[in-house]
Amino acid sequence: MKPIINCEHTCNGLCNALDVVAEREQQTLQLYGAYRDECSYEDVRELLNELILTHSRSHQLLEQTREVLRARCEVADQIRVGFGG
């Protein structure tokens, strides 16, 4: 089932999509970590560790991208203010 997405496209550097996806990645990391910690089957633990690493990299990329967007918007706002806007 496809989720219903309502993007206003007016985030001004605070992208709601990135916030939602980053939160989901964090929840996924916590879930996989909890299963890994309880699992006694080594092959499953190894798979969960790999998934944790993959989602951790994804989460870092989302956070970095969010910071880049914030910085860009700050610069654009400063330029706009500098021109009396």
How would you briefly describe this protein structure?
This protein is mainly alpha-helical.
Strands, helices and their partners?
Blueprint: H1 16-38, H2 42-82
As a whole number of angstroms, the C-alpha radius of gyration is 18 Å
Largest sheet: none
- Could you say which structural class the secondary elements and strand pairing correspond to? mainly alpha
Assembly status: single chain
Q: Topology as H/E string?
A: HH
How much helical structure, as a percent, in the residues?
over 70%
Helix count equals 2
Residues in β-strands, percent: under 5%
| Number of individual domains | 1
Termini separation comes to 44 Å
What number is the mean pLDDT?
Answer: 87
Please give a structural write-up.
With 85 residues, the chain is mainly α. The chain has one domain. It is 75% helix and 0% strand. The chain is built from two helices and no strands. The longest helix has 41 residues, at 42-82. The N and C termini lie far apart (44 Å).
Using brief descriptors, characterize the structure shown.
85 residues
